[in-house]
Design brief:
By secondary structure, the chain is α/β, with parallel strands linked by helices. The chain contains 16 helices and 13 strands. It folds into three domains: about 45 residues, no CATH class; about 240 residues, Nucleoside phosphorylase/phosphoribosyltransferase catalytic domain (Pyrimidine Nucleoside Phosphorylase, Chain A, domain 2, 3-Layer(aba) Sandwich), CATH 3.40.1030; about 90 residues, Aldehyde Oxidoreductase, domain 3 (Alpha-Beta Complex). A four-stranded mixed sheet has the order 1-4-5-13, sandwiched between helices. A four-stranded antiparallel sheet has the order 6-9-11-7, with helices on both faces. Strands 10-8-12 form a three-stranded antiparallel sheet. It starts with 6 loop residues before the first helix and ends with a strand. The structure holds uracil (URA).
Length: about 425
């Protein structure tokens, strides 16, 4: 088959800061999916995009080309509207677990296609796989049936959805090109638009434990994604939320499931509850269900009922004991005072080193491994009190986890010296 373009010309154009044409973008994404454009050529192009950027038209074209590389799902036959949430990834970010059943309990279907963790941020599927019997792989027919019956599905994205992104994301991961805003925005939005949700709420994390360390960059990413979603006919809103410190009091697979169940039972850490309710409100508003109060559905047990049905529908036992790590080790406060800071990135890396995450796609994860936190910034602590409990099945991992945690926190004299942040930093919607 003769090709319309030459990959080297496309790379040179972006290297020399020229916008790529729609035809060039369509061709290069398609040719990369067909393996006509080689990994080393796409790596060079991704680096040129990271360094020189793309304008809004190029990003929209790139997203459309990635959507066109695979199938599109269609939920218009369901009896209720659909809404989905996507987080750009953070430490202790288990929000999807209570959120999906909560929104479903309020009458909106949630088709949540999720991924596994890579690096220091955990993956929703890894967390749910710590529930005995639960399975992530569903056929499209099973997914539709569960959405109609239970209202919420959290499952693995099938290989048919935006296959160009799957190849490109793996390549970016090993070529230092993950952080390009045009590539992040098109990667996330191509999957979400192809998934066919009616409403999309984006949780764009900002801070040490997030891709975006800086509020202005996060705002730019949020604006880009909201524009892409809106132009594709998806009601899209973004919340920018704090990721300087971990969410909740746990980071690790089964540990996070346990905390999510506490939230569904009407308890749990206040930041997890508040963010779950804030995102639920946005999803319900986008889907036209402003008559429902998600805080009430958490309190009255409806969200918990839906969680139990959602887990059982995918083979899981909601009453089963969750796995517990074989070994524990405590990090204690060296003096009386106030926890001034607890760094999200360090906690995420520690949980990963303890076995909660993986270094390569094919590595297994430990269900019970992770970090349990006993205080949040601003809390009073006493000398000798446990600040963190480290969990793992492989105790030789404790030393490397402790190493990264050494400078991860401060104890200060006064609450006024603690570094606390608002949970929701900004909201971005279509103009
Ligand atoms: N999540 C994605 O799906 N893609 C990115 O590029 C970054 C985060």
């Amino acid at each position: 088959m003769s090709e319309d373009f030459d990959a080297v010309d496309v790379i040179r154009a972006k290297r020399d800061r020229h916008p790529l044409t729609t035809a060039q973008i369509d061709w290069v994404v398609d040719a990369y999916t067909r393996e006509v454009v080689a990994d080393e050529q796409m790596s060079a192009l991704a680096m040129a995009v990271l360094l020189n950027g793309m304008d809004r038209r190029e990003i929209a074209d790139w997203t459309a080309a990635m959507i066109a590389s695979g199938e599109r799902m269609d939920f218009s036959g369901l009896s209720r509207p659909t809404a989905d949430k996507h987080s750009t990834g953070g430490v202790g970010d288990k929000i999807t677990l209570p959120l999906a059943p909560l929104v479903a309990a309020c009458g909106v279907a949630v088709p949540q296609l999720s991924g596994r963790g890579l690096g220091h941020t955990g993956g929703t599927l890894d967390k749910l796989e710590s529930v005995p019997g639960w399975r992530a792989a569903l056929s499209n027919e099973e997914m539709f049936a569960q959405l109609e019956d239970v209202g919420a599905v959290i499952c693995a994205a099938g290989s048919g959805l935006a296959p160009a992104d799957k190849r490109l994301y793996a390549l970016r991961d090993v070529t230092g090109t993950v952080e390009a805003i045009p590539l992040i925005a098109s990667s996330i939005m191509s999957k979400k638009i192809a998934e066919g949700t009616g409403t999309l709420v984006l949780d764009v994390k900002v801070g040490s434990g997030a891709f975006m360390k800086d509020l202005d960059d996060a705002r730019e990413l949020a604006r880009t994604m909201v524009a892409l979603g809106t132009d594709a006919g998806v009601h899209t809103v973004a919340l920018l939320t704090d990721m300087e410190t971990p969410l909740g009091l746990t980071a690790g697979n089964a540990l996070e499931v346990r905390e999510s169940v506490e939230v569904l039972a009407g308890g749990g850490p206040s930041d997890v509850v508040d963010l779950t309710v804030a995102l639920a409100r946005e999803m319900l508003a986008g889907a036209g269900r402003t008559d429902e109060d998600p805080a009430e559905a958490l309190r009255d047990g409806r969200a918990m009922d839906t969680w139990r049905r959602m887990i059982a529908a995918q083979g899981g036992d909601p009453d089963a004991e969750l796995p517990v790590a074989q070994e524990r080790h405590e990090v204690t406060a060296e003096r009386d005072g106030v926890l001034g800071r607890l760094d999200a990135l360090a906690v995420g890396v520690a949980a990963w080193r303890l076995g909660a995450g993986r270094a390569r796609k094919e590595d297994p994860v430990q269900a019970g491994a992770g970090v349990e936190m006993h205080a949040k910034p601003g809390d009073r602590v006493r000398a000798g009190q446990p600040l963190l409990t480290l969990h793992t099945d492989t105790p030789e991992r404790f030393a490397r986890a402790e190493e990264i945690l050494q400078d991860s926190y401060d104890i200060v004299d006064d609450v006024a010296d603690a570094s606390t942040h608002d949970l929701v930093l900004d909201r971005v919607s279509a103009r």
